[in-house]
């Protein structure tokens, strides 16, 4: 997230002014009065931070605002930029049988025909070399269970 200097500048100015004022008050006030001024400054600073967070939240909730746009991804995720969606061809694997190439605990590799596929079991451990059947496909997640 990029924090714009315009947002940080008022906070920085208020903090610097408070520090300068407290240093000046330290020389002018007695110890008890200075502590009261210190606690007052801390309370004021807390209220100021809460107010700034509230303002930032209000500005960010408006989608067309500058701050709102900084919270939302503006680019597109299309194939011309190198993004690839889930392989919808894996849906055709449902019902097919294969052999586990590695132990599924619960994730591992299976082989269906000549193709190796990452798969998960329904939670059980399936040893290497067992026959499995694909029960469902959710996106890129291929779920299998042991045959028999």
Give the overall shape: elongated
- Main β-sheet, in a few words? 5 strands, mixed, barrel
Backbone structural class? alpha+beta
Could you list the spans in which at least 5 consecutive residues all have pLDDT below 50?
A: none
How many strand segments? 5
Output the radius of gyration: 30 Å
Integer average pLDDT: 82
How far apart the termini lie comes to 52 Å
Counted up, domains total 2
Helix content: 25-40%
Q: Order of strands in the sheet with the most strands? A: 1-2-3-5-4
Q: Element order, helices and strands?
A: HHHEEEEE
Q: How much β-strand is present in the residues?
A: 15-25%
Continuous helix count: 3
Describe it.
With 148 residues, the protein is of the alpha+beta class. It folds into two domains: 5-70; 88-146, Nucleic acid-binding proteins (OB fold (Dihydrolipoamide Acetyltransferase, E2P), Beta Barrel), CATH 2.40.50. It contains three helices and five strands. The protein has helices at residues 5-28, 31-60, 66-70, and strands at 97-100, 107-112, 115-121, 131-138, 141-146. Strands 1-2-3-5-4 form a five-stranded mixed β-barrel. Helix 1 (5-28) runs antiparallel to helix 2. The radius of gyration is 30 Å and the shape is elongated. 9% of the residues are buried. The mean pLDDT is 82.
